[in-house]
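re: ur msg from earlier - yeah i can do the 6-O-phosphono-beta-D-fructofuranose complex, just paste it... oh wait u already did. ok heres what im feeding in:
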Amino acid sequence: MAGINCIGILTSGGDAPGMNAAIRAVTRSAIFGGFKVKGIYRGYRGLITGEIQEFKTQNVSNIIQAGGTILKTARCKEFQTPEGRQLAYETLKKEGIDALVVIGGDGSLTGARIFATEFNFPIVGLPGTIDNDLYGTDKTIGYDTALNTIMECVDKIRDTATSHERLFFIEVMGRDAGFLALNGAIATGAEAAIIPEISTEVDQLAELIQSGFRKSKNSSIVLVAESPITGGAMALAERVKNEYPQYDVRVTILGHLQRGGSPTAVDRILASRMGAAAVDALLEDQRNVMIGIRNDEIVYVPFSKAIKNDKPINRELLNTLRRLSI
Ligand code: F6P
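and the outut:
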């Protein structure tokens, strides 16, 4: 593999459970393969400011179970400018880093793609985001843990919804993607999921009310994906309060609860496999690709595809939710 001696790792964008497992996997696989490894702190900002430390195997001991990211993370505006990226490139040269593994979501991989093209620099990406909105991989690192957190929270809210016979709108994250809302709804037996992928096609709220969803039930839970397209849980609840005053409506916004916590086994294994695969990809002279897992097999997804394509919602899941929530 042409001229790579030292691999840099960074995490960028929103933290996601399993990022530490990924850092550990990249570090250990790289050291196992005879490479030097450097950890870059605070995402792309660390590349600009030079917050970099050499990682040995011990630097990543005892972190597989920890949420968040030991490398810290940031959303770096300066890296979006050519001047910022030039500074980042100079840091890489100075530190002797020949390739990068970037762990992050859509925005982070977009930055990676621009940088890699501008400086002809080898970068491999790992999909680290609870949103699951990167194309070309069945799951992103952090998604399963967030889904399980949502499930635990909704199960608890269900107790109050049932006891008080209320209609709850629970807003979940996903930044314009409905994976958490839809699968969270199926996992909790919720009555409906309001997701941006469908919001442009139908008025989901009106459909829900018209379907007479309260006929057989006194309490209901609706998961709402945060997004200007769905309007969010607050706006939907306001609408119901005005149009259907007979309903006792409440709203819960789960917020950053969903991003924290110890990763599930699924996320730890996903992150470990993907982290090891990132080093393999560099060994095979791959660059500008995101590591994905499809049908339980590692795949390389060009950045251009992973970022640009909207990952479609599986309509079968929507249908299942509809059938099971009568
Ligand atoms: O992309 C991950 C994510 O958690 C989104 O679901 C959410 O919209 C966003 O990050 C929130 O970002 P921040 O923590 O910067 O408010």
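cool cool. The pocket of 6-O-phosphono-beta-D-fructofuranose is lined by residues 14, 105, 129-131, 173-175, 226, 259 (CB under 6 Å). ping me if u need the other ligands too
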